């Protein structure tokens, strides 16, 4: 029997950054979570069996938990950063960071000093845990002594659990250098282990980047594959230089034993384990390192494709082994819109989630035979991860064909176009139950803008709000037969009105396309066919929308469409 599925990238449209996933043996499905910054509800949980069809089943952060996490008091592009989702000792666990907490605002609005102190002692790093993906989620468990962002949680085969994350390098060699550190943690109390053994007596720095002047080594994840523990990190920052790197350490008897072996080897070479700060070790010695890099790094990037490539900023990956479909990774990427000028790329949708097949390969120099001698590799050595073998980049579509004798995976490109031809229709006044709010600002309910072009009817009562952040947004509303509008671009704002000239029962709509916000009206009744509406409509007003791009506004989020009553 032959079955074929087609996986289309991105798998989650609109702002779904920093994806992390697991294969859940109990539920026989993939479970995926993404970061949400200042949005509530937060940490949306999606499930899929085949990666082609995804269902939003719950949110780890509800309004009550958001308050305990101090989300109402974060600044723009603050809040929930880069979660890691894992099963730890039978529990669903999310390790995450709350960033950019405005302490003064928190205290002024009723947060207790004890709450704020607990969050600050953990630098915003916390754990949520649950017995079910549907919740309820317990926590937050603030990780006192954690430092940095992008925490990973890894349970090794010997039962040891490791907390790994990135922080600014203590003694940086260049601007933007970071370091990845790890320490064992007790998952019953969520406190760091302090037993005098490696990775159990203070933080241990295990990585600072792949090469000279490498910056922003972050988003670490540890995995056991065969006899090795692999470390994957993103590098270059989550922009046009973004990339994904792979490293590994030989650890057939556990990562703890491998660290002990590394320290013995360093001693035998007559070296000392470098000290970063009091009680902290560094496994990046002069002669040897604990983790060795894939010489073909990066294993994934689009930074070499140039500015003609519409899909940029690819990285921040997480691996998964599907029992039927094999190894895959999920990562973030940004679909850019070309600007007015050569080389100008603009992002409106934010960071979205993409997938790619992964194969494991050995360097021919490692396994080729020397005459009739034995292979240099061994059964417990899986080699190195290769993303989209033969294509070398993320694919637009991936066809997976399953037959009795195996699986064929074919990644392919459709076109170089970043946008969709037919406008998506987003009616913010349709009473959707999937809306989110920013922090605790309940006067506007939002949904992610998932595609460009997008057509948004202007409500007959209330307002349409198109938001990038609190200082970059546009508002459209009906006043009689006129459309009133306001655009806010930092300190600059403009307002005006235009006669709608609409037929009875027809609402004007805003088209977001080609770096413009255009007010369109037509004699059509209803907006079922958005393409016809745009094609037959009359443009009453068109304003430059580039101020809504990440490149102009700054920050880490994508645009949202909201309804303000």
TrEMBL record:
GO terms for molecular function: hydrolase activity, hydrolyzing O-glycosyl compounds. It holds the Pfam family Glyco_hydro_43. It comes from the Bacteria. InterPro entries: Glyco_hydro_43 (IPR006710), Glyco_hydro_beta-prop_sf (IPR023296), Glycosyl_Hydrlase_43 (IPR051795). GO terms for biological process: carbohydrate metabolic process. The keyword Hydrolase applies. Keywords: Glycosidase, Hydrolase. Belongs to the glycosyl hydrolase 43 family. This is Alpha-L-arabinofuranosidase.
């Amino acid at each position: 029997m032959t079955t074929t599925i087609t996986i289309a990238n991105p798998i989650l449209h609109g702002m779904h950054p920093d994806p992390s996933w697991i294969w859940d043996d109990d539920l026989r499905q993939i479970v995926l979570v993404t970061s949400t910054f200042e949005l509530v509800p937060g940490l949306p949980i999606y499930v899929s069996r085949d990666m082609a069809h995804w269902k939003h089943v719950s949110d780890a952060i509800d309004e009550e938990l958001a308050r305990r996490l101090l989300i109402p008091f974060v600044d723009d592009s603050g809040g929930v950063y880069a979660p890691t989702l894992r099963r730890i000792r039978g529990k669903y666990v999310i390790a995450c960071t709350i960033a950019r907490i405005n302490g003064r605002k928190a205290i002024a609005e009723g947060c207790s000093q004890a709450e704020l102190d607990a969050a600050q002692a953990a630098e915003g790093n916390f754990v949520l845990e649950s017995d079910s993906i549907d919740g309820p989620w317990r926590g937050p468990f603030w990780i006192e002594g954690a430092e940095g962002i992008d925490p990973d949680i890894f349970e090794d085969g010997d039962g040891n659990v490791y907390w790994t994350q990135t922080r600014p390098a203590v003694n940086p060699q260049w601007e933007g250098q970071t370091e990845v550190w790890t320490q064992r943690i007790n998952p019953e109390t969520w406190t760091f282990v302090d037993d005098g053994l490696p990775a159990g007596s203070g933080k241990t720095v295990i990585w600072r980047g792949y090469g000279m002047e490498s910056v922003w080594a972050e988003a670490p994840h540890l995995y056991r594959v065969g006899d090795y523990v692999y470390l994957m990190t993103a590098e270059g920052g989550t922009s046009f230089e973004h990339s994904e790197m792979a490293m590994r350490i030989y650890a057939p008897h556990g990562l703890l034993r491998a660290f002990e072996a590394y320290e013995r080897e360093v001693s035998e070479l007559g070296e000392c384990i470098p000290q970063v700060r009091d009680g902290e070790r560094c496994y990046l010695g002069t002669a040897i390192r604990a983790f060795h890099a894939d010489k073909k790094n990066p294993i994934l990037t689009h930074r070499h494709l140039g500015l003609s490539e519409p899909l940029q900023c690819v990285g921040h990956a997480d691996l998964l082994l599907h029992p039927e479909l094999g190894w895959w990774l999920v990562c973030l990427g940004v679909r850019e819109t070309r600007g007015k000028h050569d080389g100008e790329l603009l992002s409106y949708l934010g960071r979205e989630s993409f997938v790619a097949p992964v194969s494991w390969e050995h360097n021919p120099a490692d396994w080729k035979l020397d005459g009739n001698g034995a292979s240099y590799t061994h059964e417990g050595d899986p080699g190195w991860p290769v993303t989209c073998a033969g294509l070398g980049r993320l694919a637009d579509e991936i066809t997976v064909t399953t037959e009795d004798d195996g699986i064929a995976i074919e990644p392919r490109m459709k076109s170089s176009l970043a946008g969709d031809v037919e406008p998506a229709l987003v009616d913010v006044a349709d009473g959707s139950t999937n809306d989110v709010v920013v922090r605790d600002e309940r006067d506007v309910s939002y949904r992610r803008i998932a595609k460009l072009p997008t057509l948004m009817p202007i409500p007959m009562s209330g307002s349409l709000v198109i938001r990038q952040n609190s200082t970059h947004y546009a508002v459209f509303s009906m006043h009689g037969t006129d459309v009133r509008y306001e655009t806010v671009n930092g300190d600059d704002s403009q307002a005006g009105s235009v006669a709608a000239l609409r037929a009875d029962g027809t609402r004007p709509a805003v088209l977001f396309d080609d770096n413009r916000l255009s007010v369109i009206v037509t004699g059509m009744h209803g907006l079922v066919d958005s393409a016809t509406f745009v094609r037959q409509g009359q443009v009453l007003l068109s304003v430059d929308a580039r101020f809504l791009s990440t490149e102009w506004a700054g920050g880490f989020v994508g645009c949202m469409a909201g309804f303000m009553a």
